[in-house]
Specification:
alpha/beta; 7 helices; 36% helix
Length: 211
Amino acid sequence: MAKIKMSKKSTSIDMTAMCDVAFLLLTFFILTATAKQQEPLPVDTPSSTVKTKLPETDLATITIGKDVNAKDSISIFFGVTGRDVRKRTLELMAQKYKLSFSEKEMEQFALIESFGVPIQNLSQIIAMKSSDRNKPGFQPGIPADSTDNQLKEWIYNARIATSEIADKDLNFAIKGDAKQEYPSVKKVMDMLQDQKINQFDLVTGLRGKDY
């Protein structure tokens, strides 16, 4: 009995729907992505195999690095998550140092993730563009010596602001340069412990186990 020959037809797949979905996803990720801001105090963090992730909210980061404008000096920067917390922290600091900031300055400060200037010069930094204020070496750092320890006050008032707004305790992380001498980091640690903050994270870069 003769076999019936089936006619061969070319196969084709309509990719229109898949292309539409791909472009929709691409558009979504582009529109929702946030560009990484330039760090005003870039540091090369030490390497570690620890993979603990820092909390995304209720976190204050203290960055310690070399002052590029001074040979034997360090710069300390401070940043806290949450726009409302930043704004409330600035209000408390203004009360402490008897300064006044306009509502517009408050709103602009709430957008700044990290800064490193004496509070008396903060208005000048707030008024600048992000690209200008974040130029390495432009901000000298927050005073943290025995005669004018503004860093201690920022820590204290940020904790109060977080407690008032989020009803939570503020977490702390220290981000130091790998080449930074230990006494500089210990100075910040002692400052935290003086305020009964005995748990904090050290920010490191990830390395392989066989490094």
